[in-house]
Design brief:
Helices cover about 40% and strands about 15% of the residues. It is of the alpha/beta class. The strands form two sheets. Strands 8-17-16-15-14-13-12-9-10-11 form a ten-stranded mixed beta sheet, with helices on both faces. Strands 3-2-1-4-5-6-7 form a seven-stranded parallel beta sheet, with helices on one face. It is elongated. The two termini are about 20 Å apart.
């Protein structure tokens, strides 16, 4: 991943250091701005050839400089172009001042812009570096453009978005298309930023990749490049025991479906054997619905201890439909020397004292995978969830370090984080995955890959990606049962 530019994520601060390093290396910084602005103009002409007028909104920094270059390029191409600026252009510095000086188009104050039918907007006001709420004048223009339903191309990032967190700072443009340079920023892939960016184009303006790579952080985009080499590959001599044994704990007779979804997903993910460990009062309900998945009565701690005497019982999923309380806590703690995916009720059972769980899995290799959605995350890590200055990536990393676990912080922008500081953001999940039982399927895929010996971080990342791909294959009307049939590893 570190060597794959397609998957780098650079914070705005890191991108600023890249620009500075490029300038120190002798690269002409205005030449980079010229390439950026020309790329924006080319995207505007390509995407909106029917526009009657291109309206370029320029800010007081280098983002505005890109806008002035784009305006000049559009005018040179024969397009009607108008430029509206924020603040006095006499205050521009460096390359932005140069771009303004060579732009032949007269400018008007930003607050004087009134949308016209046929306008296409180029937003070059702030870009990714904004870290405070937008001024009222900018918020007013955003509202007018949104009300007129005009298409927007954003330069680097829609103005009003925090490039580090993807959050809206007061108000933000909703772009049809965003042109950024050299690498994605977290704000492009974290919600709601991803939704507001529209189509995203990463344009290479000529900064050497070695300079960009030097600032690429621990976070990146989740893709097979991060884990494919570690996917289990059955060989000719492989038998079912070598492919690992996954055990999924069932809830009571009235709540058995979630465990069966996890078990079926684990089997589909390649585990050689899958067993549902069931309370005796749920054996009949489970047995009537199982074929390839085995069934074992496990009612209490004594039965679990006997089950754990077999070292081949190495990997477990606990939580889906299990019930919240002391039994879930006790079972999870009994698995401290095994690999465990803790989901749903299993997570909530530790809300009063999560440190007990974290301590149990604190030594040795990472064996615990936590799969919280936003509410469950806040139950285990309330102080982290309340820290509004953190991005979702930062929160997941803090949680992983504290819990000694891989944390799969679920959502449309699921973040997978490891205790060693690695993090991946997943972007391939369709909205149709927001359906009952989808999370149970994900837990089972993770468990199935863990059972086959895949390291916890890579197993979780691979499972999240394949879960998303399966969702796309299942289509808009997917159900959790149908989703399993689309898992292809």
């Amino acid at each position: 991943m570190k060597n794959d530019p397609e998957h780098w994520l650079l914070s705005p601060a890191a991108m600023g250091r890249v620009d500075q390093a490029a300038a120190r290396s002798g690269i002409w910084s205005f030449g980079l701005m010229e390439k950026a602005g020309q790329a924006v103009a080319a995207a505007a002409l390509r995407l909106f050839p029917e526009a009657l007028r291109f309206v370029v909104l320029c800010g007081p920094g280098n983002n505005g400089g890109d806008g002035y270059v784009a305006a000049r390029a559009l005018a040179d191409a024969g397009a009607e172009t108008a430029v509206f600026r924020l603040d006095d252009p006499a205050r521009l510095k460096g390359d932005a001042a140069t771009a303004f000086a060579v732009c032949p188009i007269a400018t008007d104050a930003l607050d004087s812009y009134e949308p016209r039918p046929g306008d296409a907007i180029i937003d070059a006001i702030f870009g990714a570096g904004l870290d405070r709420p937008v001024p009222e004048a900018v918020a007013a223009v955003i509202a007018r453009v949104d009300g007129a339903d005009l298409p927007v191309i954003a330069v680097d990032l829609p103005s009003g978005l925090d490039g580090r967190t993807g959050r809206v700072l007061g108000a933000a443009f909703k772009a049809r298309h965003t042109v950024t340079f050299m690498a994605r920023k977290p704000g492009h892939v974290l919600m709601p930023g991803r939704r507001l960016c529209g189509g995203l184009e990463v344009y290479d303006i000529g900064i050497p990749q070695r300079i960009v790579e030097s600032e690429a952080g621990p976070g990146g985009l989740n893709s097979p490049a991060a884990w494919e080499r570690l996917l289990p590959k059955p060989e000719a001599q492989t038998h079912k025991f070598l492919r690992g044994h996954l055990t999924v704990f069932s809830g009571p007779a009235t709540a058995t479906g979630a465990a069966r979804l996890s078990a079926a997903a684990g089997l589909r993910a390649g585990a050689g054997l899958v067993t549902i460990a069931s309370p005796r009062n749920a054996l009949e309900a489970n047995a009537s619905q199982l074929t390839a998945v085995m069934l074992k009565p496990v009612d209490d701690h004594a039965a679990l201890a006997a089950y754990l005497e077999d070292p081949r019982h190495s990997t477990f999923v606990l939580g889906p439909g299990f019930g919240v309380g002391a039994k879930a806590r006790g079972f999870a703690l009994a698995l401290r020397d095994r690999r465990l995916v803790l989901d749903a009720d299993g997570i909530t059972s530790f809300r009063d004292d999560p440190s007990v769980l974290f301590a149990a899995f604190s030594s040795g290799e990472t064996r615990l995978v936590l799969t919280p959605h936003e509410g469950e995350f806040a139950r285990l890590f309330p102080d982290v969830a309340d820290e509004k200055t953190l991005s979702k990536i930062d929160m997941a990393l803090a949680a992983a370090a504290r819990s000694h676990a891989v944390v799969v912080y679920k959502g449309p922008d699921t973040v997978i984080a490891a205790p060693d500081g690695r993090a991946l953001v997943n972007t391939n999940a369709p909205p149709s995955l927001a359906t009952a039982g989808s999370g149970d399927v994900l837990a089972g895929i993770i468990g199935g890959l863990l059972a086959q010996g895949m390291p916890a971080f890579e197993a979780a990342a691979a499972a999240v990606w394949h879960h998303g791909r399966a969702g796309s294959g299942a289509g808009r009307g997917l159900t959790a049962e149908g989703l399993i049939n689309h898992i292809e590893l």
